């Protein structure tokens, strides 16, 4: 199982739209542009949704999902999972997150980033848990 970071563009699809439209357990289809990292998302992989801080008054991690399937034309079927409904209302944002995402992205001009470093995967999961527990 791989973990992917999906960077959302607030100018193209606002955090307000994410909050209104994305609900846990409802299957979605999105296209993605540039991808960084080897391979492609596969069924069962995890995707973490992130709005960058640049030019966005409401940045952070808004949720995550399980990949259902990938299409040949850069399309992605996924199902959001808990605690997405919570995170979209209170996104995880912290200095730690900014540093972590910067390390994962390297070159930020892409939509989808494979989180190749296992330590980064663990930091993302731990960070979400800490945020939800109010420890961050």
**Average pLDDT figure:** 93
Count every helix, treating DSSP H or I runs of 4 or more residues as helices: 4
For the sheet with most strands, the description reads: 7 strands, mixed
Strand content: 25-35%
Can you tell me the overall shape?
A: globular
Which bin fits the share of residues in helices?
25-40%
Which sequence of SSEs, written as H and E, runs from N to C?
EHEEEEEHHEH
- Tell me the strand order in the biggest sheet: 2-6-5-4-1-7-3
Number of domains: 1
Which class of secondary structure composition applies to the elements? alpha/beta
Unreliable segments (pLDDT under 50, ≥5 consecutive)?
none
Q: Over all CA atoms, what is the radius of gyration?
A: 14 Å
Number of strands: 7
The N- and C-terminal alpha carbons lie at a distance of: 27 Å
Explain how this protein is built.
With 136 residues, the protein is of the alpha/beta class. The protein has one domain. It is 27% helix and 29% strand. Strands 2-6-5-4-1-7-3 form a seven-stranded mixed β-sheet, with helices on both faces. Helix 3 packs antiparallel against helix 4. The N and C termini lie far apart (27 Å).
């Amino acid at each position: 199982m791989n973990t992917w970071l999906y960077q959302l563009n607030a100018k193209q699809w606002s955090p307000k739209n994410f909050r209104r439209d994305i609900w846990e357990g409802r299957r979605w289809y999105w296209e993605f542009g540039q991808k960084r990292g080897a391979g492609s998302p596969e069924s069962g992989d995890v995707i973490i949704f992130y709005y960058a801080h640049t030019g966005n008054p409401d940045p952070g991690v808004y949720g995550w999902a399980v990949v259902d399937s990938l299409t040949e034309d850069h399309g992605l079927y996924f199902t959001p999972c808990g605690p997405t409904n919570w995170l979209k209302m209170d996104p995880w944002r912290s200095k730690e997150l900014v540093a972590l995402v910067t390390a994962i992205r390297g070159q930020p001009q892409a939509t989808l980033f494979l989180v190749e470093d296992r330590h980064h995967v663990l930091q993302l999961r731990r960070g979400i848990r800490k945020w939800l527990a109010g420890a961050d």
